[in-house]
Amino acid sequence: MPITPPALRPGDQVAIVGTARKVSSEEMAAAVEILTGWGLRVVLGESITAEHHQFAGSDELRARDFQRQLDNPEIRAIVCARGGYGTTRIIDRLDFADFTQHPKWIAGFSDITALNCHLLRMGYESIHGVMAFIFNQEGGEESLESLRRALFGEPIAYAAPAHPLNRPGAATGELVGGNLSLLQNLTGTASDCPTADRILFLEDIAEYLMNVDRMLVHLDRTGKLRDLAGLLVGHFTDPQDNAIPFGQTSYEIIDTYARKYGFPVAYGFPVGHEPQNMALICGRAARMVVDAEGVRLEYEQ
After folding, report:
1. Rounded to the nearest 5°, which phi and psi values hold at 87?
2. Pick from 270, 293, 282, 298: which is nearest to 139 by CA?
3. Spatial contact of 213 and 219, defined as CB atoms under 8 Å apart
4. What residues form the catalytic site here (predicted)?
5. Nearest of 164, 162, 165, 234 to residue 199 by alpha carbon
6. Looking at the structure, do residues 238 and 261 belong to the same domain, yes or no?
7. Which residues are CB-neighbours of 221 under 8 A, at least 6 positions away?
8. How many CA atoms lie less than 13 Å away from 224 in the CB half-sphere?
């Protein structure tokens, strides 16, 4: 069973670090204000003011900054600043030896899927949730509150309405998943995470439908779907298509491969690149129930 980092308490120190796309200190102002309002002390990593083309500093700088926060036992959580691309460029530079002595929450989504999966592969829970760059997005208040509850160890449970493609049933398993593109990209690496007997959740943004199909073919051929306990399909935002249409939506593509197996499936789960992006604890055992009313997800006690 994965190790759970200690819940945050008022007065704890947290760091905001850029592992991927660049951000400015001005863009972090709302997150600093909100985290401070939660009773936390906020440290901005050197990557927040750094810039190297599209990245939050060079690979060396971003890795050094993240390592510094990993190694500092006074930092009780790391909130990633923004996604985009760049986390996989530095992940093999990181040394988690001190982290294993003083585990802490690491939170983010999208490109941060690489860290979520890497930590779960190591045997530690992490949070797939809102990043600092969009703490103040309109309509994201419920998602932000779910992140706060996850960080502070408060109970969380979710529900979503029925979808025509849902397949009813119940499943229990540790949560694993995130951005489909990253999950496919991690296959065969040191951050690749087993999916057997787990509940997989998926989301993505601005992907061509043909690419969604290609990635599902790859996941299926590598056995990632075969032994799932269950599947939660989140937002597939802003899908792209070719001049000659692919002929299926993202959900219909996923259904093509999911229907080969018997696990329960729920579509339209509130996770992904939209304001409704509820915090999910990767590695935490959960129970999903899909019925005529929709889907309910609760963590095992």
Report:
1. -65, -40
2. 270
3. no
4. 110 (nucleophile), 203 (charge relay system), 273 (charge relay system)
5. 234
6. yes
7. none
8. 26
Last residue of a domain, one of 119, 151, 183: 151
Residue 301 has pLDDT above 90, yes or no: no
List the structure tokens of 226.
Answer: 């075969």
17 - beta bridge partners?
80
24 is catalytic: no
- 49-108 residue pLDDT tens: 999 999 999 999 999 999 999 999 999 999 999 999 999 999 999 999 999 999 999 999
Q: Please tell me whether residue 182 adopts helix, strand or coil conformation.
A: helix
Q: 125, 203, 207, 274: which is the annotated catalytic residue?
A: 203
Q: In this predicted model, what pLDDT tens digit does every residue of 126-137 receive, in sequence order? A: 999 999 999 999
* Catalytic residue (one of 47, 110, 143, 191): 110
Domain boundary among 151, 178, 207: 151
The domain that holds 184 is classified in CATH as 3.50.30.60
Q: Is 131 helix (H, G, I), strand (E, B) or coil?
A: coil
Read off the pLDDT of residues 96-117 as tens digits, 9 standing for 90 and up. Answer: 999 999 999 999 999 999 999 9
Catalytic residue among 181, 191, 273, 274: 273
DSSP reduced 3-state for 264: coil
Q: Which domain holds residue 110?
A: 13-151
281 — alpha (psi -120 to 50), left (phi > 0) or beta? beta
Whether 203 sits among the annotated catalytic residues: the reply is: yes
**Is this prediction's pTM over 0.85?**
yes
* Rounded Cα distance, 199 and 175, in Å: 5
At 144, give phi and psi (nearest 5°).
-65, -40
